[in-house]
Amino acid sequence: MSRTMRKWGWMAVAAAAVAAAGWTGAASAAEESAAGDGAAAPSRVLIVYFSHSGITKGIAERLQKKTGGALHRIEPANAYPEEYQAVLAQARKEIGEGFKPELKGDLPSLDGIDLVLVGGPVWVGTLAPPLASFLAQVDLKGKTVAPFCTYGGGLRDYFQHVKAAVSGEATVPDGLGLGREQLKMKEEDIDKAVADWAAKLPKPAAE
Length: 207
Ligand SMILES: Cc1cc2nc3c(=O)[nH]c(=O)nc-3n(C[C@H](O)[C@H](O)[C@H](O)COP(=O)(O)O)c2cc1C
Fold this sequence. Notes:
Blueprint: H1 10-21, H2 29-35, E1 44-49, H3 55-67, E2 70-73, H4 84-97, E3 113-123, E4 126-127, H5 129-137, E5 144-151, H6 158-165, E6 176-179, H7 187-200
Parallel strand pairs: 1-2, 1-3, 3-5, 5-6
Antiparallel strand pairs: 3-4
Helix pairs in contact: 2-7, 3-7
The protein binds flavin mononucleotide.
Flavin mononucleotide (FMN) binds next to α3, α4, β3 and β5.
């Protein structure tokens, strides 16, 4: 039985997170519906994200709470400039050239991980180069890669670009995109959007 065919183990994941991190929050309705019935083998979730100015980081942290998954922040070995015009110029150049920057630190292990939530800002209508570096370096065969992103005014074909970046290795469900306007919503509405998306992530068929 392949790993992707395992019964989804959200409740086991949440229980492990409580044990590991001492998180004692009651499971929300979304978490409970994501748990499915009688989750058997534990499945593990990894949330990988790049965030230049911290907005996607906030969404990644909410997803961590919803899923109990492990959180891994991607950072380029050479940090981008803070100043908007400078980072925009560098991003345009790198994306135009298909440049994939070196990443800082070790890549996270994907052993035993079924679901990888991959988040980042929309940069120049596509993935920020550090995220493209990550997707090019890891073996995603047989995994589900669920993309989430934050953006200013235009999501454009971001999720199609994610699909192309995983080059058919992984299953890519519908993504979560939160634009500037949605990010102005009340905290609980953002939380609901995140929870609703997490609850809809595909569950592998029962064993
Ligand atoms: C270099 C750069 C390029 C960007 N390109 C786009 C874009 O093409 N479309 C868009 O809607 N927003 C664009 N944005 C805005 C970011 O996607 C948005 O502010 C995002 O929420 C930032 O997330 P972060 O704080 O996690 O880095 C860009 C921002 C930067 C810095």
